[in-house]
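yo, Sugar transporter substrate-binding protein is done. seq:
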Amino acid sequence: MVTFLHYFTDSLSGGVDDMARVFNANNPRYELKAVALDHESFDASMQDTLQHGHPPDLYSYWAGERTAAVLADLEPIDDVWKQAKLDERFSASLIRAASVYRGKTYFLPLTQHVVGFFYSKKVFAAYGVQPPKTWEEFLAVCERLRSGGVTPIALGAKDRWPAQFWFDFLLLRTVPYEFRERLMAGSASYDDPKVHAVFARWAELIEKGYFNAAPNDAAWDKDANAMVHDGKAAMTLMGTWNLGHLAQKPYEWVPGKDYGFFPFPMIVPEIPAVALGPIDGIVIPKKAQNLPGAKEALVFLAGVEAQRAFSQGSGALAPNLDIPRSVYNEVQQHALDEIGRSPYFAFPYDLSTPPALAELGLNAFSEFLAYPKAYPTLLRQLARDVHAHTQR
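structure:
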């Protein structure tokens, strides 16, 4: 038995059981038992079992700062990585971004998501608008929709993290990528004029009525998606895991037919494009009860058959380079093109920032949505809080 504790639940549950079935059908030695917990319960369980023993053999986890924060309790996988020649299955840039930490390999990529706009084709057609490529075009589309009585943008920020994508893109489309890296690390200030400019632009969208009212009270899936599906809103900024949710009842929307996908518009043309999204994967705890079985499962889950099964159920792109483009639907192909045209691939804010600092930022984004005009005061306080934390 190989136990696998993961957070792919509810709206995000697609694909993981398919992946486990593929493993079990092909492996006579071990059974992969996948156990799901919601995000909050998963975090608590992981921290407890890592520290006090009896962890599962495998955890799902997010690449980036979340993995970096628990390295001391993880088993390096350089041996199995080399034996299985996994360098040949994943791109060098993805390995650098997601798998290697402090010179050792810890993380097997399972899914790669891309954040962009999901839009109702019916609503866009009814108002004669096309997916915008520039900020000026985006504003024109929003104004046309708003003046016609449709909310341009649905935002469900009840869980806090969906709001971060607006901060991410407004920053990444207006400042050099290196500035964002310094901001995430705490060496640049949230009181910097470049950050103020991001919030000023965001506040203007809110004040013009381009967002739904009270986004902090709305869920990203059951509310924001419902507004787009029902024609009350035209689009929502979300990751490609949304494919799995929109395929479920009561939506049962078909990608490319009922809805489309477009990247966040360019704002400053001189700023190189950055694709944004999380990479989910697998890590092995040091105290895994079945370390040989965990490593055998890890190698299998790096393969085409398992990654393809997970991709088809979850809406994610499969990190394995041998997955053919033809297996992807129209929206996934647009996401793949966004990665291909972008010199950089960035993790979302809460995965690019040390966890304690990310909490400060996520709270600030929620407060901003409630009081957008107060952003100068909010950013000064956030800068002080981040500085105080980094000096400890």
